[in-house]
Specification:
Order of helices and strands: HHEEEHEHEEEHHEH
CATH class: Alpha Beta
Structural class: alpha+beta
Organism: Poecilia mexicana
Keywords: Nucleus, Phosphoprotein
Strand content: 15-25%
Strand order of the largest sheet: 4-7-6-5-1-8
Protein name: Thymocyte nuclear protein 1
CATH superfamily: ph1033 like domains
Radius of gyration: 17 Å
Distance between the termini: 30 Å
Largest sheet: 6 strands, mixed
InterPro entries: 5hmC_binding, EVE_domain, PUA-like_sf, THYN1-like_EVE
Function: Specifically binds 5-hydroxymethylcytosine (5hmC), suggesting that it acts as a specific reader of 5hmC.
Shape: globular
Length: 224
């Protein structure tokens, strides 16, 4: 689920003492040198865990849609309009998407993808500016993302802070990405296994450097 329409100023200071990522709590008090990502896959190989990615695609809804009387609209223009063009990315209620957010590191880039709208596709680029911390909306009974099964002692959901970086030189629509995906599946290419089509329902998706760079290159090319 995307963030809400109303401005979301980061509540990092209020939650800075709470760390929900098990990997982070297990290494508290000692620093571990991060492994370098593979140049081709963008994944960090870990001896006892899943691969870690370094580039992302994050979906949100740019058109009004009401849940329990609340408009959940949040497009890239809404992000641009916020103070410092920065927002927490709250409301994710899928475990795999949450786990991907918990892998994110400050400085990594993510595509801002407009979803559930007349023209879905990639609108711009964001930067991760704060790593995963407790998503406060899970405790708010008035929030559409409230989760009665989550407690402050054992919070289930996390969020990150993102900052607007820039718009794409041109909007890259879903239909165009799908055409490339199908071509690459048939003939080989960087988008043959892209999560946008192999894990389409996820609102937070990992991208390899090859996938990210190919999609980025489309802004300088004419549509198919």
């Amino acid at each position: 689920m995307p963030p809400k329409k109303k401005p979301r100023v980061s509540k990092a200071s209020a939650n800075s003492g709470k760390i929900v990522d098990a990997k982070k709590t297990s290494t508290a008090g000692r620093k571990r040198k991060a492994a370098a990502p593979d140049a081709k896959t963008g994944k960090v190989s870990e001896s006892a865990g899943s691969p870690v990615f370094t580039r992302w695609l994050m979906k949100s809804e740019p058109e009004s849609r009401f849940e329990n009387g609340v408009d959940v609209k949040f497009g890239i223009e809404d992000l641009k309009a916020l103070p410092d063009q920065t927002s927490c990315w709250d409301g994710v209620r899928n475990y795999q998407a949450r786990n991907f957010m918990r892998q994110m590191k400050v400085g990594q880039q993510a595509f801002f993808y407009h979803s559930n709208c007349k023209e879905p596709g990639i609108a711009g680029i964001m930067t991760i500016v704060k790593e995963a911390y407790v998503d406060h909306t899970q405790f708010d009974k008035k929030d559409v993302h409230y989760d009665a099964s989550s407690t402050s002692d054992n919070p289930k959901w996390s969020m990150v802070d993102v900052q607007f970086q820039r718009m794409m030189k041109r909007f890259v629509p879903l239909w165009e990405l799908k055409e490339h995906h199908l071509q690459h599946r048939a003939n080989g290419g960087p988008l043959k296994d892209v999560a946008l089509f192999t894990r389409a329902r996820l609102s937070v998706q990992p991208l390899t450097p090859e996938e990210f760079d190919f999609i980025l290159s489309l802004e300088d090319k004419e549509p198919l």
